[in-house]
Amino acid sequence: MKLKLAFLSTMVVLAGCAGAYPERVVTKGPLICAANEVCPELAMRWNEEKRNGFRITTEINNAQQFDIKQFVFLVDGQPYTYSTIEPTKYTSLGTTKVSSNSINVPVSFLNSFRNAKTIDLKLVTDEGEINRPILTADGQKSSAYLTFLKGYTGDLTQ
Prior knowledge:
With 158 residues, this protein is α+β, with helices and mostly antiparallel strands. The protein has 3 helices and 9 strands; from the N terminus they run αβββββββαββα. The chain has helices at 2-18, 107-111, 143-153; strands at 26-30, 41-46, 53-62, 68-75, 78-83, 89-93, 96-106, 119-125, 128-135. The strands form 2 sheets. It has a 5-stranded antiparallel β-sheet with strand order 1-2-3-7-6. Strands 5-4-8-9 form a 4-stranded antiparallel β-sheet, covered by helices on one side.
């Protein structure tokens, strides 16, 4: 009987690990920007509420506030459009305003980052569009992209 109980316990533990995803891993980094450009940062977190994908949050640190309405990722020319899931949040740090908002994406979407040749992000705001590269065709990788690879795919060779 003890042997059966031990076997059953082992099987339950192994079955639980087979579908496990990271629970509280957070990665954050800026996009590729020139010195005089507004430079959003991206943070990615496993969606703990739904357990079916990731929550991507952008922050824009600037003297001006931005109402962020939509994220459009261009992965090798293929657009992936996501509307924000809540109103933009604003905080102040001295003269700098931090505008932040989030989207939810499925795991399959972020898996497409791994083999992509180019990735661009267009943020649609009340002040117009902010277009910045995440990964360029000549191999330039943003901190957001590198951090994502290290945090979610375990690829430390980038």
